[in-house]
Amino acid sequence: QVQLVESGGGSVQPGGSLRLSCAASGYTYISNFMGWFRQSPGKEREGVADIAYNGSATIREAVKGRFTISRDNRKNTVYLQMNGLKLEDTAKYYCAAWWDGRGFTMSTLVDYWGKGTLVTISS
Predict the structure, then answer these.
(1) How many whole angstroms separate alpha carbon 86 and alpha carbon 110?
(2) Residue 15: partners with Cβ closer than 8 Å, 6 or more residues away
(3) Residue 28 class from Cβ within 10 Å (0-12 exposed, 13-18 middle, 19+ buried)?
(4) pLDDT per position as a tens digit, 6-27
(5) Exposure string (b/e) for 85-106, b if CB count within 10 Å is 16 or more?
(6) What backbone torsions phi and psi does residue 120 show, to the nearest 5 degrees?
(7) Which of 37, 58, 63, 84 could form a disulfide with 67 if both were Cys (CB 3.0 to 4.6 A apart)?
């Protein structure tokens, strides 16, 4: 059974940084895509960043230049480095893994979800 376990969430002031990690286990064949979604109260879940097995990444426009995604295939782990955090980045961040390349924009195609980790930006 595949499990995705996130860590690294927390509370920081605007302009601060956090690094999220997600470790995957239980795989027979690792998913082609891993990434991060986020959801804040009253809003739909949205893709933040994803990265393919070959390292090709997609970053949401709103976080470009501030967030970086990386992946260690040997450790089945994906990371999200978040710098210059803004109040509007406050959300629960979910790690995800999927095979279909459209999963980043169609979350119904995501195969596996983590339970989420809370990121709170407040002054």
Answers:
(1) 27
(2) 84, 85
(3) exposed
(4) 999 999 999 999 999 999 988 7
(5) beeebbbbbbbbbbeeeebbee
(6) -125, 125
(7) 63
Average pLDDT over residues 81-104: 95
Q: What are phi and psi of 27, to 5 degrees?
A: -80, 145
pLDDT tens-digit series, residues 50-71: 999 999 999 999 999 999 999 9
3-state secondary structure the chain: CCEEEEECCEEECCCCCEEEEEEEECCCCCCCEEEEEEECCCCCCEEEEEEECCCCEEECHHHCCCEEEEEECCCCEEEEEECCCCHHHCEEEEEEEECCHHHHCCHHHCCEECCCEEEEECC
Q: Which amino acid is at 98?
A: W
Mean pLDDT of the chain: 94
Nearest to 76 by CA among 106, 107, 57, 51: 51
Residue 22 backbone class (left: φ over 0; alpha: ψ -120 to 50; beta: rest): beta
Over pLDDT 90: what percentage of the chain? 82
Q: Is the Cβ–Cβ distance between 82 and 20 less than 8 Å?
A: yes
